[in-house]
Amino acid sequence: MKNFIFHNPVRIVFGKEIIPTLSSYMARNEKVLLLYGKGSILNNGIYDQVTQSLKQAGITWKDFAGIKPNPTLSQVRSAIAICRQENIKAVVAVGGGSVIDAGKAIAAGACFDGDVWDGFLKKISWPQALPLYVVLTISATGSEMNSAAVVTNEETQAKMSFYSPGTFPKVSFLDPTLQYTLPEKQTIYGAMDMMAHVLEFYFNGTPDTDVQDYFSEGLMKTIMKHLDIVLNHPKNYESRAQLVWAGTLALNGLNAAGRDKGDFSSHRIGHALSACYDLPHAETLSIVMPAWMRYVYKQDIPQFARFAREVFGLQGSENDLASKGVQAFQDWVRKLGLPLSCVDVGIRMDAIPSLANNPSIPFPLGTLKPMQSEDVESILRLSNY
Ligand code: NZQ
Ligand code: ZN
């Protein structure tokens, strides 16, 4: 096991009927930015629950609606300007990864005199940010309990992230019932993303990680089992709850501890696809991750064989098992109806070279097999077999 420091300051409030308590964690009589997406929270009652709680504490708010999936830099910059004009003291992000990530960038950018994009380009870190409160409405990214923000610069077609001690949410409210209204497709996207987060660490090449591996395998089996239940019974509270907590644990640092950093090749390549084609994050992962696995699995046959055995219950010799595990994962992705190739989402083969050199992808890429742009091209072509 590698040395590590684990510190996660996010307070989690989990369960039913918790939204009324939101404002009890916030400073009274201040003005906050209420950030949300394209309108689902207006239709399903979540907006009313949140604002009711704010009113009770004398907290006033300025709405900033319309954060889009794959949030953009221009939206973040506009919201930062509003925070300054209106003397905003905190950000309340009500939504999924897109809203939460925009919230982190806004909270940090509002406390910084320069341009927020500099933080993404790693020129600066964010020691300070406005306090961020999260009401999670879709489980997928783990953003509710980590410090990462992922934003797309539309001008440069770069989808990039930052991590900073100042941008952990102060409190995140995880009420599984808020997810009863998710379209089936979004629930599937969420599960795909959670699995990918677990796998980015599981297959990062670090040896001697039994406790982390069993933890990861438990998360993956939980995600697959309860996704099946929720797809048939979208209002099954217990299964929603299992998915919510699994999604948070998949990317809150626990799964990473002792393993060092994740591989994240699939995510980085996926970000290039989203930056250029505005694809949902999970669709980029369903295209890239099985192809990446196929491309790299010979680097760590024992771990891929373990994956096949422990997660899919397969048997056989180590070499056979390793490739069977990749196939089983790809079959799971196919069964969910997610795209598996660039062609499936209309990306032409002649776009692949420029995608492989998109600024969203840092080189050398990944930890299991450090890669260059030629490798990325090969993976994207492999997705089309
Ligand atoms: O915009 P509204 O109308 O709210 O609709 C949203 C959106 O269309 C809808 N939705 C959310 N909750 C709902 C609901 N619809 C009905 N009922 C509800 N309760 O779901 C759609 C997708 O929302 P979004 O926030 O985009 O989803 P997700 O949580 O998957 O976030 C994706 C973003 O997070 C980034 C991704 O790259 C992408 O930009 N990621 C962030 C990470 C992090 N901060 O740690 C890590 C991830 O790997 C990922 O990169
Ligand atoms: Zn992800």
Description:
The protein has 385 residues and is an alpha/beta fold. It is 45% helix and 11% strand. α6 packs parallel to α8 (237-250) and α11 (301-312) packs across α12 (318-335). Bound molecules: 5,6-dihydroxy-NADP and zinc ion.
Detail the topology: elements first, then pairings.
Elements lengths: L10 E4 L16 E6 L3 H4 L2 H11 L3 E5 L8 H13 L4 E6 L1 H13 L7 H4 L11 E5 L11 E6 L4 E6 L7 E4 L9 H19 L7 H23 L4 H14 L14 H13 L3 H16 L4 H12 L5 H18 L16 H5 L16 H10 L3
Parallel strand pairs: 1-8, 2-3, 2-4, 4-5, 5-8
Antiparallel strand pairs: 6-7
Helix pairs in contact: 3-4, 6-7, 6-8, 6-10, 7-8, 7-11, 9-10, 10-12, 10-14, 11-12
The structure holds 5,6-dihydroxy-NADP and zinc ion.
Strand tally is 8
Low-confidence stretches: none
Query: Main sheet?
Result: 6 strands, parallel
CATH second-level architecture of the largest domain: Up-down Bundle
Task: State the secondary-structure class.
Answer: alpha/beta
Keywords:
385 residues; alpha/beta; Rossmann fold; Dehydroquinate synthase-like, alpha domain; 2 domains; 6-stranded parallel beta sheet; two-stranded antiparallel ribbon; 11% strand; globular; binds 5,6-dihydroxy-NADP; binds zinc ion
